[in-house]
Design a protein that fits this description.
single chain; alpha/beta; 135 residues; Immunoglobulin-like; 4-stranded mixed sheet
Length: 135
């Protein structure tokens, strides 16, 4: 009887571990786009991410160049992910990941610029325009 109880506990703990992995997998199911070469085609309710190379130690960061058409897409988060290297290294770049949700049918563009926010009269070092089609 004790063995059956111990087996039940082990199986329960294993099942909990599987459900945790599943939730991590589900968060990875958000498709990431790094190139603006073709439209992002998604359906209402779907999330997607734009992943761009960034290095905030230089003072530069990505910003929206124009307001979003919030009838089509909405911004959920913007996070910086440092490149996985030796953590003792300084000035290591990484990526900014901008996560959006499709909220309504239509076409829209996400215009982004890589700038130092305090330099108002200086042109962007880089720009990107992502076309989004929500069905």
């Amino acid at each position: 009887m004790k063995r059956l109880f111990a087996l039940t506990i082990c199986l329960s703990l294993a099942a909990l571990g599987c459900s945790e992995k599943l939730s991590r997998t589900e968060t990875r199911m958000i498709k990431e786009y790094t190139k603006q070469d073709k439209p992002i085609e998604i359906t209402i309710g779907q999330q997607f991410a734009i992943k761009l190379v960034s290095n905030p130690t230089t003072g530069y960061g990505w910003q929206l160049s124009k307001s979003l058409d919030e009838k089509v897409v909405s911004l959920l988060t913007n996070t910086y992910v440092q490149k996985k290297t030796d953590t003792r290294m300084v000035s290591v770049g990484g990526h900014e990941v901008w996560t959006f949700r499709a909220v309504g049918q239509g076409k829209s563009e996400i215009d982004m610029k890589y700038v130092r926010p305090w330099e108002k009269d200086v042109p962007a070092v880089e720009t990107n325009v992502f076309s989004v089609v929500v069905k």
